[in-house]
Amino acid sequence: MPISRRELLKTAGVAGMLGALPGVVRAQVGALEKKSLTIAVGGQPLIYYLPLSVAHLKGYFKAEGLDATIADFAGGSKALQAVVGGSADIVSGAFEHTINLQAKGQFYRCFVLQGRAPMIVLGVSKKTLPDYKTPADLKGKKIGVTAPGSSTNMMASFFLAQHGLKPSDVSYIGVGAGAGAVTALRTGQIDAIANLDPVISTLAKEDAIQIIADTRTLKDAHQIFGGNMPSGCLYTSQAFIDANPNTTQALANAIVRADKWIQAVTPDEIAKLVPESYLLGDPDLYKLALKGNREALSPDGMVPEDGPQTALNALAEFVPHFDRTKIDISRIWTNQFAIKADQKYPHG
């Protein structure tokens, strides 16, 4: 069913959908401008990035005519650097990076969503901080994050700011997003960890951490951030979108198909699809983590209307001297590609 003009305006942001907003393009059906491309991601085995893995493993990128190579980095900040530096075309990363980039005068836009809650958990080591009582106990301690500057770092800093602590009150240590992160906590290299599943569920099963902040459900994310907080997404430079609208549409199509497939199948089917290394040696625990994070994964690739403002508010809370008045949030996201993808694949 054709979508109405009113619905387009509502979901994609005022007149930007129709081309009045600078930099928004109207993708048309046609040949792909760029078939071979590289997608940078920071910690692909994380459930946070599951739609990317599913799109790749199920052949959804190929079905759209794309030859997509996935380059995996230790964290989202490293993936971002790859795209800014020109060694990758697209980032599969945290939504809020688009805001940070605009603050530096670089215009990047999210064009399809993978997660509608951050899925990040902050836990305290029961080994090195057995007597933890309040966030103030973290002062002077080492917090493991996927990579400094990544979304895990941002979430931890936001939580600390809510409790009167500055980012400089702790030390952030990059530990990655897999077995290395688990080992860092187990061996006492860090006192707390901000990470995602299956890393968090692995540590929780061992009773190695005390969870103090959890954004794996919409309810908990709303409580911490005050609204919908978009998380994993595909984003790229506005210049790439302008030059490659059909390619951008094909990428959105593949991710929306993956989003819908994840919601329609069982954890068993997902666990069978992903590489064994994703399971961290415990398939049953991975399946349990899938159930715990399913609500946070996007069902349709669409950015919630209040999400960009929530993300901006969160950044402004803890980034020193952050001037939110200089950010035009209409330029960091669009639903125009997700809308067309949902029309093409209404049932995944």
Give a description of the structure.
This protein has 348 residues and is of the alpha/beta class. The protein is built from 15 helices and ten strands. It has a five-stranded mixed β-sheet with strand order 2-1-3-10-4, sandwiched between helices. A five-stranded mixed β-sheet has the order 7-6-8-5-9, sandwiched between helices. Helix 6 (151-162) links the parallel strand 6 and strand 7 (171-174). Helix 2 crosses helix 11, helix 6 (151-162) packs across helix 14 (307-318) and helix 11 (245-264) packs across helix 15 (336-344). The radius of gyration is 19 Å and the shape is globular. The chain starts with a helix and ends with a helix. Mean pLDDT is 91; it is low at 1-28.
Blueprint of the fold:
Blueprint: H1 5-12, E1 36-42, H2 50-57, H3 60-63, E2 67-73, H4 76-85, E3 90-94, H5 97-103, E4 108-113, E5 121-125, E6 142-145, H6 151-162, E7 171-174, H7 179-186, E8 192-195, H8 199-205, E9 209-214, H9 218-225, E10 232-237, H10 238-243, H11 245-264, H12 267-273, H13 283-293, H14 307-318, H15 336-344
Parallel strand pairs: 1-2, 1-3, 6-7, 6-8
Antiparallel strand pairs: 3-10, 4-10, 5-8, 5-9
Helix pairs in contact: 2-11, 6-14, 7-8, 11-15, 12-13
Keywords summarizing the entry:
348 residues, alpha/beta, five-stranded mixed sheet, 10 strands, globular
Which band does the percent of strand residues land in? Answer: 15-25%
Task: Find the count of extended strands (DSSP E, 2+ residues).
Answer: 10
The number of distinct helices, counting runs of at least 4 residues, comes to: 15
Output the structural class.
alpha/beta
**What are the segments in which pLDDT stays under 50 over at least 5 consecutive residues?**
1-28
The CA-CA distance between the termini, in Å, is 16 Å
Approximate shape = globular
Largest sheet: 5 strands, mixed
